[in-house]
Amino acid sequence: MKVLFIGGTGNISTSVSQAALANHIELFHLNRGSKHMDGVTSLRADIRDVEAVKTVLKSHTWDCVVDWIAFTPDEVERDFQLFHGKTRQYIFISSASAYQKPLLMSVITESTPLKNPFWDYSRNKIACEDLLAKHYREDDFPVTIVRPSHTYRNIIPATLGGSAEYTVVDRIRKGLPIVVHGDGTSPWTLTHADDFAKAFIGLIGNDYAIGEAFHITSNEALSWDRIHHYLAEAVGCEANIVHATSEAIAAIADAEGIPTVRGSLLGDKSYPAVFDNTKIKRFVPSFRASIPFAQGIRQTIAWFEADPARMIVNERSNHLIDRIVESCRIRADQ
């Protein structure tokens, strides 16, 4: 099977690339050439340069194309123009943050409505899905939608100071307070990228998946406090947690000129996220998530600490966390 990944070396897509190679898929990466993976054929072009991409791809047809880095309708329309009639399947990476906010049901299924009035990122993903559904219905474009939720490998899942940063871990090691939104009890599902890859591989080349949408998550829903405690345990420390409302965190972040915090909190992390994975297990019966967060986060921390260049401590994040902690202390004293 001949498969093209647009991207392919990111937090989630690296695990899927490795799984594809292990399953003897002939894998190609289309990117700007900054990263290369052994066993993968690299096609060098910037996806935003359509003419360059056409030149690189002109002699190829595909069993499946996966775009890991499309975020807007213009970008998926570009993909439609590039790959219509040239691939048997096109997989779009959407986001579980597109699901209804606030949720009316306690468990999310693929039939949960898509509606997020709080986050542009999510609204763009919804618009992409709408456009691709139109091309599927009217142009027979062979679309499969995948909606990852909070999936980690080389990122740190934390309310603040995580993701590609090491800031939250540095604070934990130093005994400094860290911030968790709300009262810390809201359930949240985390999925290791290696587990995600097990299910995703089963969708590639799966004719029954055409025209369908799936989320792929573990079944381990942890409270946000528990997530941060596991993070602290992974580095042999205790978590000094300070709670603040999501709205208060977002307001202080706005005042500090960090508007991205508002969307990810009020448009995603502030709400419970528990998923029903019946559908993906029906289409990929072998799928089972087997990496608990307490184990997976140790692997993630080890990856960061294997190279000091990865252990990025962002002083802007430190300042934001300090501001939030101080604000909570002032309110507590009043």
Task: Give the tally of structural domains.
Answer: 2
CATH superfamily of the largest domain: NAD(P)-binding Rossmann-like Domain
Structural class per helix/strand content?
alpha/beta
- Order of H and E elements: EHEEHEHEHEEHEEHEEHEHHHHH
Terminal CA distance: 65 Å
**Number of continuous helical runs:** 12
Instruction: Just name the CATH architecture of the largest domain.
Output: 3-Layer(aba) Sandwich
- Enter the CATH topology name of the largest domain: Rossmann fold
Key descriptive features of the protein:
12 strands; Rossmann fold; NAD(P)-bd_dom_sf; globular; three-stranded mixed β-sheet; 2 domains; 12 helices; Epimerase_deHydtase; UDP-galactose 4-epimerase, domain 1; alpha/beta; 334 residues
Quick structural overview:
The protein is α/β, with parallel strands linked by helices and 334 residues long. It is built from 12 helices and 12 strands.
List strands and helices in order, with pairings.
Layout: E1 2-6, H1 13-22, E2 26-31, E3 41-44, H2 50-57, E4 64-67, H3 73-83, E5 90-93, H4 120-139, E6 143-148, E7 150-152, H5 167-173, E8 178-181, E9 187-192, H6 193-203, E10 213-216, E11 221-223, H7 224-234, E12 241-244, H8 246-255, H9 260-269, H10 278-283, H11 293-305, H12 315-333
Parallel strand pairs: 1-2, 1-4, 2-3, 4-5, 5-6, 6-10, 7-9, 8-12
Antiparallel strand pairs: 9-11
Helix pairs in contact: 1-6, 3-4, 7-11, 8-9
Domain NAD-dependent epimerase/dehydratase: 4-206
Pfam family, one: Epimerase
Organism: Microbacter margulisiae
